[in-house]
Amino acid sequence: MAKRPADFEGEDNALKAGERPARPDNGNGNSNEAGTFEDEFEDEFESEDEVLEAGVDGRPDEEREAEEKREAMDMDQKTFIPGRDKLAAGESLSPDTSTYEMLHNLTTTWPCLSFDIVPDQLGDNRKAYPATLYAVAGTQAESKKTNQNELMVMKLSGLSRMDRRKDEEDSDDDDDDEEENADPILETKSIPLPSTTNRIRAHQYPPQNASRSPITHTATLLENSDIVIHDVTPHLTSFDTPGTMITPQQSKPLATLKMHRTEGYAVDWSPHAPQGKLLTGDNDGKIFITTCTEGGKWTPDNQPFTGHQSSVEDLKWSPNERNVFASASSDGTVKIWDVRSKSHKPAVSVQISDTDVNVISWSRQTTHLLATGADDGQWAVWDLRQWKPSTESGAKPVPVASFDFHKEQITSLEWHPTDDSIMAVAAGDDTLTLWDLAVELDDEESRDTAGVAGVPPQLLFVHYMELVKECHWHPQIPGCVMGTGGGGFG
Question: In sequence order, which residues have a C-beta less than 8 Å from that of residue 309 and are 6 or more positions away?
């Protein structure tokens, strides 16, 4: 799958932080005109039985098929697995477009190594094309050009499905398909940022006036350790309201939080606090909660949550318990916290890896399942009902599922929004993979991996994506996954 520089590449092109065939003419033509052929062996006669035995190339079919089989055995039949196998000099990868329902790539001036998808008002469970989606992202400009960093508010439209009928005859509904196969369009609104973005997350809640658009806030963790909160509602609505002008005041942050002394990468909005409740963690191992109070004032807690011996890499609120959250750290532990604890210490702490635990994802469908991804390339699923409070001793919990297919660090993972058996995983081996945890290993058919060694039966799909850092499912477009990395968005 070759990387091709472009402002926005269409579906026929494929796509660690801050570091990115026309069919050959064989000369054969087709003619509808029948001709007369001179037979230089016209005096020789072959019986009908001899002609039938000879097959298409003058040899018996069995002989020809046996030779083709021998030639196929001599060819390199090895399946190329991105992240495992290395390309030789002059080789490049191209996607098998028949395996994609939709595939588009997008490059920006500066890499955006963190982004989030913004829910919209276009409906749930959308399957019509061309598709439209909204997103926010933060840039990572070069150190000498940090003043060019920005928060990008994006609308991507005209996202057509793959054209699978290129070799088929034109049908009567070609006019209808012109719109479905429209060219992709990117629209952006820019908000200046004073530093590189480490992580960005969006939060949306309904307005008091039901006739107005939902309110969308973003929290951006910057490399300079500040956290900036913006209201990007006017930027989003301007895409669909021609003539709308964004004033400089509307692009100013609602709040700039400075309680962290070091930069961080961990941030999450509470799903249980509509007005806004934010978790943030830093490289000192400290976790703060910031709440939007009456009047729109953003107030951090005076006392941080402490207990990690190293940097906090990721944070997730419980999907069903408003006072509970989980944290992952480079100290190899995952901890469960109760915000009502006066000590601000973890309720549960489990050492799950000898390396950094980079990312976690809490299942919204089966809320006792937590997925983790580590620096050694291993990702796992844990049953939190087996985790005991920190004051209790006992056997170390074991994951209900664990995979070491990836050989580089796990950079992102996320449960499918509606199917608790499907997982998207991004890794430092330049791959974004999809997994089905419902595959039964006692089923002989499910264990079949077409003879490819080292591939778990649960692995559904491998997509090559240069320096991929984050991936997210679109909550309203079934099966749509978006990723970002050093080579752009896909």
Answer: 285, 329, 331
If pLDDT is split at 50, 70 and 90, which confidence band does 30 have?
A: very low
- The whole-angstrom separation of Cα 250 and Cα 254 is 9
Could you tell me which residues are beta bridge partners of residue 116? 136
The Cα-based distances of 172 to 164, 175, 293 in angstroms read 16, 8, 59
Kindly give the residue spans of alpha helices, DSSP state H, lying in 189-300.
233-238
Residue written as tokens 């939007």? 292
193 burial type by CB count under 10 A (0-12 exposed, 13-18 middle, 19+ buried): buried
Residue pair 216/269 in contact (Cβ under 8 Å)? The answer is no
User: pTM for the full model?
Assistant: 0.80
**What phi and psi, each to the nearest 5 degrees, are found at residue 97?**
-65, -15
Q: Is 258 exposed, middle or buried (0-12, 13-18, 19+ CB in 10 A)?
A: exposed
Task: For 78-135, write each residue's pLDDT tens digit.
Answer: 566 766 677 778 777 777 788 899 999 998 899 999 999 999 999 999 999 999 999 9
Q: Is 3 exposed, middle or buried (0-12, 13-18, 19+ CB in 10 A)?
A: buried
Give, in order, the Cα–Cα distances in Å from 417 to each of 203, 321, 475, 480. 16, 18, 6, 11
Tokens 């291993």, located at residue: 378
